[in-house]
Amino acid sequence: MEWNNFRDFRNFVHVGKEIQAVCDHQRRFKDLFVGYPGSVHDSRVFRTSPLSQTLEQKCGTYFILGDSGYPLQKNLLTPYKDRGTLTQQQINYNIKLSKNRCIIEHSFGMLKQKFRQLYHIKLRKIPLIVHFVRAVCVLHNISIKDELPDANLIETIEAENAAVAIGDDNEDIEDDGSAVAIRDHIAAIL
């Protein structure tokens, strides 16, 4: 299958619309969903990803942190929507969530620094591009596991991603009712 709008897809790692990734605290990719066509909202990509169907099984008693583009679920924590009425506890939760969510931004930054080809993918067939992106993510994980030198890469990436905005996305996403109670409990103990 040929991609009609190659220019937009070629830069998809940079744009971040057609790739969904989960990483751990060491910036290793743990789950990857690549190849969703077009520029669509994060919640739609999530709903169609295998992760959304197996989230509870994969996470158990742990949580994945998401931005406001994702739906709040039992194992997927998202920020409180800021409509000007947040309590100090909710603001504190959003700040801590944002600081921890920076890890995925750093992971993508490291990936793009190590594999500059991601800026100029010359492949045209979607399946090949998907395999290419998955392969560089595997190589990224291997380089972290084997502690290959990065020459101040993390500092560079942290400078580039100094502040990751929490902001609300335009799409209203329905939250899981029981997940609201979980998020409120976590916010209370932070």
UniProtKB/TrEMBL annotation:
Q: Where is the signal peptide?
A: none
What does the record give as cofactor? a divalent metal cation
Q: What is its main location?
A: nucleus
Q: Tell me the keywords, alphabetical order.
A: Hydrolase, Metal-binding, Nuclease, Nucleus
Q: Which Pfam families match?
A: DDE_Tnp_4
Which parts of the chain span the membrane according to its record? none
A GO MF annotation of the entry reads: hydrolase activity
Q: Where in the cell is it found?
A: Nucleus
Task: Output the Gene Ontology cellular-component terms.
Answer: nucleus
Top-level taxon of the source organism: Eukaryota
Start and end residues of each DDE Tnp4 domain: 18-141
Family to which the UniProt record says this protein belongs:
Belongs to the HARBI1 family.
Q: Which PANTHER family match?
A: GH03217P-RELATED, PTHR22930
This protein's name: DDE Tnp4 domain-containing protein
Q: Which organism is it from?
A: Acanthoscelides obtectus (Bean weevil)
